[in-house]
Structure formats: C-alpha cells, structure tokens
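Worked example 3 (structure in, sequence out).
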C-alpha cells in the first residue's frame, strides 16, 4: 500500500470495445488506494488500464526516484552496467563486416578468373556470362560476375514494384514486352542507304538476277504502339522514310508490317517478351510470304508441302529463353519466354557445301541439341542464335528445280533461312552486317534471286550493312 500524498491519474476501462471516457482522480492524503492499482510510495505514475476489449494503444510512462523499487517485469534493475551488451553488438557488427569483405573478395577472384579465361580462349564458360552488345572492359568484366542473374532479378523486382518503366536502357511496354527504342536517323543517311539498295537491284537485274528487299516486323507495332508516355521510338518512322526512297527507286520489297496488318495478325504475338527477335513461328510465317513472292515473280515452283505448317512438328520448351533485353533487367522485370523448334515431318536430305557433310534438316539446319542442353542456363545460353544457326551454304538433294537463292540477312533470318533452304536447289547465306562478299558470290553461283532481309533497328544507319562489294559504299 502506498503512503499519503500520492498524486494519480487513472483511466479505467472495463467491458467496452472503444474507450472514450477519461476519469481524473486526485487522492487526498486520507485516501486509501486499491492495492491492485497503486504501486509503492514515491512513484509518480500514469496508468492506462484496459480490460476485455480488443484494440489497445497504451503507453506507460514511469519515472522512478532513487528510492523506488521498480516492478521486475517493467524496468530492469537500477544501475545495470550496459558494457557487456555494447560489447556483444560491436562483435556482431565486426563479424558482419568480415563476412561481407570475404564475399566481395571471393566474387572478385571468381570474376577475375572468368574474365581471364574469356580473354585467353574467347569462350566464356562460367555460369553467369551475359552477351553484351558493346565491346568494352566494363561490360565484359561485369558479364563474368557470379550471381549476376540473382542481383539483376532483385533489382528488376524493385524497379517493377516502384512502377519504373525503364531499366538499363530497356523499356517495359504497356503490354509487358521489353524493348530498346531506336534513335532517329537523318534523312541524308537513310537516302544514302536506300541508294545503295537501288544500285544493288540495278546491278543484279543487269546480270539477269531478281532482287527482293524484306523489311522485318518491328516490335513496337506501327498500328498498335505500346510505349509508355514520355518514351519515343523512331524505328517505324525511320523505316517508313527508307522505304519511301525505295519506292522512288522502283525497288521490289516486302514490308512485313503491312502484310501482318492486312492479315489481321497481332504483331506482339509474333515476338518474344524478353528478346528483340521475332518467334520461330513468325519466321515460318515470313518464309511463306517470301515464298509467295518467289512464285509470283521468279517462276519458282514451291511444293505446298513445304509451306503448310501442318506438315511440321513443333517441340515446345517452356521458360527456356531469357532474351537479350531480359538479360539486362533480370527475370522478375519481364519474365521468361517459351521456345518452339519447328521441324519438318517429311523426308529431307541436304549437303553442306563447305564440309560436304550430308544430313537431314535436323543435322544441318538447326542445332536442337544446344536447346536441350542449355534451356535452363538463362544467362549464359543464347538459345535463339545458337539453337537456330545452321550451315550457310547448302544443296538440297531432294529439290526438283535448279533455282539458287542468296540471302543476305541478320539474326531475324535465322528463323527463315532453314525453310528457304528446302525450297531451292542451292542456298547461300551472307551476314547482313558484312555483306561485301555478295558481288563475288553472285559471280560464283549465278543465283536466281538475291534477297536482302534486314531488321531496321540494327541496320538502318549502319553503312556497313549496305556495302555489297560493288563499289557503291563509302
């Protein structure tokens, strides 16, 4: 029981859910406080008592003089020495610092080994290699870092949760697809490059060779743009201007953007979410459109079996691709893509004219084993490029015509060229980025048709893509 002279404020709340009453008490010297309410003498106390209600927000403030005896469940004993607790906290911090230093050092050694191996052999074999578009020390070195995918994915998840629509120069479109926009190209540059295509067609026609320019699809659809507000992409405007110059020069071309729009196709269904490439199904569709043009303009007779998708089997690999844009932002920002390998059900027999190896479509024109072995290596694998590239110079031993095609194409053509190889007697491929060997190859094989297929993002504005070896380039 406390002594006289105690001043007390007590809020008593019993058998109600929301407290709204405050009872102020001041006990005179003669008062006899309840033994369950008041502590020992000398205590100045504010007590919030709450019984039988569900929502409580109580704050108990105590100030004890030297003579007070605090309740053991509320306050520690007076005069406790805190040195031991401070010492333990300091040790924990030091241990964390040591572990962090060891982790950074181990990661640096791991990265150094991977970087040295890449520089010596040219073949990155560590688990977290990323193919970078730029060739510089920083990108090559960071490409060999351990746990890179995990770090990217965490960063991507944070950016996505914060509503960030751009990360590492990759834009997340309104429909969730990832892309890198194209800067505007000058009219002078586009006119110059169009003039090289016009000159090429004129040169080939003078030799009796047909010519076709193919403009591939663009990921940011011309008819359904999905860029977030404030972002700009000049891919379609650059391509429109370039094709207008080809029109003026009388060049034969296919604008697959217009073809897809006329057929009611959704452009985004023809692209991977995380990659800049179109899908293998889109490549097969593009092949059928090129085949129609060859039949109508070059006298080709292409068996309907080759262009009918029902005559092909599709092997589906789920979540097998983290594309070129996804590798810059991690899994959480854009997700993963499925990958389909499209193979003929009918008999095929071809010869690689460089190695003289004879084999089937699967033996020479694709590399499905690479897909099977690397479909789980999201960062280090390059499923699209390395799974689809095949022989570059082939002869179709089951072809009944004597037509020859030369295709000058970039990586978008990887999904097209294997089917064109089935449609002609001889088929040759040149890289769109170094096509200056075209003039010599034309003299060597005397093709029926030369096709230049380009993705505008990676070719327009790059003069190397328009030097075909005829002396028309700068």
């Amino acid at each position: 029981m406390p002594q006289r002279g105690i001043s007390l404020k007590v809020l008593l709340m019993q058998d109600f859910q929301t407290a709204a009453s405050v009872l102020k008490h001041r006990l005179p010297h003669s008062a006899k406080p309840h033994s369950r309410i008041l502590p020992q003498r000398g205590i100045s106390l504010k007590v919030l008592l709450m019984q039988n209600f569900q929502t409580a927000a109580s704050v108990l403030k105590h100030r004890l003089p030297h003579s007070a005896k605090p309740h053991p469940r509320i306050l520690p004993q007076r005069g406790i020495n805190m040195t031991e607790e401070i010492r333990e906290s300091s040790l924990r911090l030091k241990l964390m610092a040591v572990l962090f230093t060891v982790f950074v050092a181990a990661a640096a050694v791991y990265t150094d080994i991977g970087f040295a191996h890449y520089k010596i052999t040219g073949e990155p074999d560590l688990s977290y290699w990323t193919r970078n578009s730029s060739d510089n020390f920083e990108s090559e070195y960071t490409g060999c870092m351990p746990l890179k995918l995990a770090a990217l994915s965490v960063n991507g998840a944070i950016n996505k949760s914060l509503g960030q629509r751009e990360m590492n120069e990759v834009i997340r479109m309104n429909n969730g697809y990832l892309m890198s926009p194209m800067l505007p190209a000058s009219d002078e540059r586009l006119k110059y490059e169009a003039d090289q295509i016009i000159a090429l067609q004129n040169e080939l026609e003078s030799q009796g060779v047909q010519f076709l320019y193919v403009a591939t699809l663009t990921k940011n659809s011309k008819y359904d743009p999905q860029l977030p507000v404030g972002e700009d992409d000049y891919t379609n405007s650059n391509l429109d201007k370039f094709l207008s110059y080809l029109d003026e020069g009388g060049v034969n071309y296919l604008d697959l953007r217009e073809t897809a729009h006329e057929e009611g196709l959704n452009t985004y269904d023809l692209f991977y979410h995380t990659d800049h490439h179109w899908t293998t199904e889109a490549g097969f569709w593009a092949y059928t459109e090129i085949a129609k043009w060859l039949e109508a303009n070059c006298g080709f007779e292409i068996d309907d079996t080759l262009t009918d998708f029902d005559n092909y089997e599709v092997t589906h690999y789920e979540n097998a691709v983290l594309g070129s844009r996804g590798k810059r932002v991690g899994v959480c920002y854009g997700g993963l893509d499925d990958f389909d390998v499209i193979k003929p059900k009918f008999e095929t027999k071809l010869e690689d004219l460089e190695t003289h190896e004879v084999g089937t479509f699967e033996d020479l024109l694709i590399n499905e084993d690479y897909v099977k072995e690397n479909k789980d290596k999201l960062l280090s694998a390059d499923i699209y490029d390395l799974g689809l590239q095949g022989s570059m110079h082939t002869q179709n031993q089951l072809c009944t015509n004597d037509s020859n095609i030369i295709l000058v194409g970039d990586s978008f053509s990887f999904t097209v060229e294997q089917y064109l190889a089935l449609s002609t007697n001889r088929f040759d491929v040149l890289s769109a980025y170094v096509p200056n060997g075209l003039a010599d190859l034309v003299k060597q094989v005397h093709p029926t048709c030369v096709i230049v297929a380009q993705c505008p993002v990676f070719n327009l504005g790059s003069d190397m893509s328009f030097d075909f070896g005829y002396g028309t380039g700068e």
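Notes: Confidence is low (pLDDT under 50) at residues 1-66, 125-134. Residues 83-121 form the longest helix (39 residues).
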